[in-house]
Write a structure and sequence with these properties.
The chain is an all-beta fold and 296 residues long. Helices cover 0% and strands 56% of the residues.
Amino acid sequence: MIFEPRSIFEAHSSYVIGLLFSHDNRTLISSGMDNAIKLWSVPGWALVKTLEGHAKSVNSLSLSPDGKLLASGSSDNTVKLWSLPDGHLLHSLQDRKKVVSVIEFSPDGKGIASGSYGGKVMIWTTSGESVIGFQANQNKNLSSLAFSPNGDILATSGLGDIIAIWEIPSGNQNQTLAGHKTAVGSLTFLDAGSQLVSLDYEGTVLFWDAHTWKPIRTYPSRNARVRGLAFSPDEQITALSLESKIEFRATSDWSLLAELVLGTKVVNGMAFSPDGEYFAAGAADRKIRVWELPLS
């Protein structure tokens, strides 16, 4: 079935790139190519606050496990750390003059991993100190970082068909996973860290055993450009962003559950609310669309 969004609102003056819900379900956080981070009320979708400080596009957002810190990575080559809900800028971090394309809090909330163009990974403390840096030579222009739930593994992917597995905190490379034929744009650990899910730019999805690092399941490309994926809080539903729609698929068998209609071709950010009540998508037309769940 095809479902229309319940709410549509213009959020940024350029592309919407990042989206995430606060852990308490009260706030939707967005970032865009207009250099801004915005906080929106849930469910009213009214603008609460704008965080300004980046000089270029804000490419990635990550929320600390306790919900009190927000990290942002930008094309201005910096990682910024903000306190929530007041939006106060705490630290501005920079390793070198390269675009910061992706960031991710560690599961214990004590560290932040950043990935940049050129394949450099940095891990910082929440007080702004660098812990370790290493070069992901297989992953030029990093596009995704994923910590295992216990934080001892970091998976990286980017401009290249190889997924790299790193031991944390040493930064030693543990494994390289070969199975994709094009660049890998998304990584997620599932099932308490027993599986790693990867998505490439042609839409092929691989499920990996995170103990043996062997592929478990493969869902091949359907000749459609898939830009990203997101999982529902219970991990039972996978959202896939295509050029003109979003597909909801059952994670267990990949059966199609629903199609969400968009009035634009490019979807850059997707997020399920932690309570499972809402699903949001941000797009190139500067708008955020919100669906109420379960779909009706």
